[in-house]
Each structure stands twice: as structure tokens, then as C-alpha cells.
Amino acid sequence: MGCVHGKCCCSDRSQSEDGSRDYREFGLFHCHKKNILAQKSLKHVPVPSHNFILEYTFLTQRGYYPDSPAKENQDSFCITTQIQGNPNAHFFAVYDGHGQFGTQCSNFVKDRLVDKLSNDPTLLDHPVQAYNSAFLATNQELHTATEIDDSMSGTTAITVLVIGDTLYVANVGDSRAVLAVKDGNRIVAEDLSSDQTPFRRDEYERVKLCGARVLSVDQVEGLKDPDIQNWGDEESRGGDPPRLWVPNGMYPGTAFTRSIGDSLAETIGVIACPEVKTVQLTPNHLFFVVASDGIFEFLTSQTVVDMAASYMDSRDACAAIAEKSYKLWLELENRTDDITIIIVQIKGLSNSGTSGVGSDEINVGTVMSSRTGTPEISATPGSDVYRSVRTSFSDLHSCQHVASVTSLAIEVHSPTKTN
């Protein structure tokens, strides 16, 4: 949702898996849609300590901004496998920048946060402590050690650190991570993060104590009674959510209560301290989704999980979820947000930790493809992971326009440490 004033991490010297095909055409959205970046092939990384495999893919899409046609994609994301050289530790993150310098904030944080985690000797033994230190240090560095003006710009961050069979999910802001859980014959969405917005009573009360006025835009402009401090719930909020304002001004107007950056908003209670959730994986955990609020603004967690579970190939799932989100934005707003989604399948995890990939899997969509491929390929920052993705529009074939974009993301396969 971002700020009322105004979002990559995957460079990869990658090869296609043997037998893989170019990412198929998908009839996404409308003719103004461009800058779609999607992974050509599914990537796999093992977790040898528990004998399962993570299979992941991603898609990021610049929003449609009719009043700002040159606006950049302010989303960024980071996928780092074998963090600290540990084959059992892997990191997935999405950052949603906002404000005039949101792109710079987002890209700075996606580089520095993982760097701080990678260099923290306490990470594997005390991940929650390491997470807190990394978030706060990155925030302080953005304030003081860069030329980026983060007074009214910043980024949210939703991150998932996999260490063995445990997920550590750290969040600031209103992007989201969701876990798909097998429950009998159903697949249930379990939120791995809680959106930090004024809709949450605890966050509302915290920022109020710090001096924030919490009002919708209509209330600030005098169109609605500011004394009515009730905006419904987040699922039915409509287009005028509660926002944070300084006591005697009409700024900054943030719709979240935690972020990295936003130094002015810090004076009224916006903080960079993450909420960290820990989940031990079981064979009933099928996959998880990490995505910006461009996905979740109009789609519930359960809808996203249902859609992801209905596709054999998670690349198709990414495209379908992004398309659905995009269309809902256009139906309900005069623009769309930037959209970024990572889907990570959990393959072969068993209670004994000895089963092979594909054993006892629920048929996700049958649920999703259970094929495995070549191991994760080493990548270095700065190389060009992306291929131009062709779009075909069922009704406007002449409007095909896809741009290659570089330096949008960093995907890192950390080298194994040597003594």
C-alpha cells in the first residue's frame, strides 16, 4: 500500500536445466503492461540435513501508473542459497519500496540486509537475534551512511530464512509470506506474517502513543469525521485506509506502521524492528509464497494459495496470480501497484527425514509439478539472469511490449566455506 505520496535481488549466471523450455507465453494483463521479469526455469536447492529440496521460481512486474508512465518498479527481491556457505540455510525476501526514492531504498536494503545476515556469526545459532540486528543496522545505515533521502521514502521487507527444517520469517510492513498446509483433502493458507498497519489494534495504539494521528485521507481532508477511529478490517477496507500523520501536518501518510527508512515517520512511531515468526516444517507443509502487497491488496492469502495449488508448474502459478492481482487493481483503482511473487515448493520432507523427493506428496494441482532437476547453479551479482518474457494478449496482439530490465535483483548461491 505504501505511502500516500507516491518497488531487483537476482543476478544469475545461470544455465537452463537440461530439457527446460523458454518460459512460455502468457496472456498477461493489458497492452500497457511491460517490464515482466520471470524465471525461465524452476530452480532447485537441496537441504541435505533433512533430505528435502526447495524448488523456487519468481515473477516481478512493474505497476501501471497512468499519471507517472516513467515510474520505475520499486519492488525488489533477493534469493540467496547456501547463506554463510551452509548447504542447509537459504534466504528468500521481497522488498516493496515507496516514496520518491523508494527504488533506491528498496535496492539498498535488498543488498545490505542479506549482507549483514551473511556476515553475522550468530545467524545459524540465534537467527531471531541476528534478524533484529540486521534490520536495525540496515535501517540506521540507510539513514546515515548513504546519499539516499529516506526522510519520506523507504521500503517494507518480508523475508524467509530456511535453516534445516525450520522457517524464520521476519517482517516489517504490509507485504506477506504465506504457507500452504495440507489439512485432510484441503490445502489451507497459514499466514507466516501479520501485516503491520493501523488496522491492527496493537500497532494502532503503539503509534498513537508516539504522537501519530491515525486518519484516512478523507478524514484528513475534512470529508469524514476524524473522531471516528474505526475503519473496519483489512480484508474489507476499500480504498481509503487509515494512515499515519504528524500532529500538525498532512504528511507522511504511511499506511504501514513498520518499515526500513522513513526517517520522518520514525518520529511518530514507525519502526524497523521486525516481527519474527518461527515454524518447524512437517510433511504437511507443501509450499510457501513470499510476495509484495501488490499481490495481497485485493487477494486473500487463501485465494493465493488456492491459485498456486491449482497449477502443475509454479511458473504458471506466478503468472496467474500476478494477472489476477493486476486485473483486480484495474477494476477497483485507476492504477496498479508493482507486483512481486516468489513461490517455494517443499519437496520430499518426511517425518523420518529419510524419504526421497516426491514421496507421499499431495497432488498439488494436482498440486504442482514434482519433478526435480539439476542442482542449484552458481550465480554472481551483476550477471544477467533475465530473459525478455514475451507476452501475448488474447484481445490486443498488436500491443505486445516487454522490456528487458537488468540490475533488478540479486540471486546468490553462496560458495561453500573452506577451512
UniProtKB/TrEMBL annotation:
InterPro entries: PP2C, PP2C_BS, PPM-type-like_dom_sf, PPM-type_phosphatase-like_dom
Pfam families named among the record's database cross-references: PP2C
Coiled coil regions in record: none
Gene Ontology molecular-function annotations: metal ion binding; protein serine/threonine phosphatase activity
SUPFAM superfamilies from the UniProt entry: PP2C-like
Signal sequence annotation: none
Catalysed reactions listed for this entry: O-phospho-L-threonyl-[protein] + H2O = L-threonyl-[protein] + phosphate; O-phospho-L-seryl-[protein] + H2O = L-seryl-[protein] + phosphate
EC number: 3.1.3.16
KW Translocase (keyword) present: no
The entry's keywords: Hydrolase, Magnesium, Manganese, Metal-binding, Protein phosphatase
Cofactor: Mg(2+); Mn(2+)
Enzyme superclass (EC): hydrolase
Domain PPM-type phosphatase stretches: 55-346
Signal found in the keyword field: no
Annotated family: Belongs to the PP2C family.
Protein name: protein-serine/threonine phosphatase
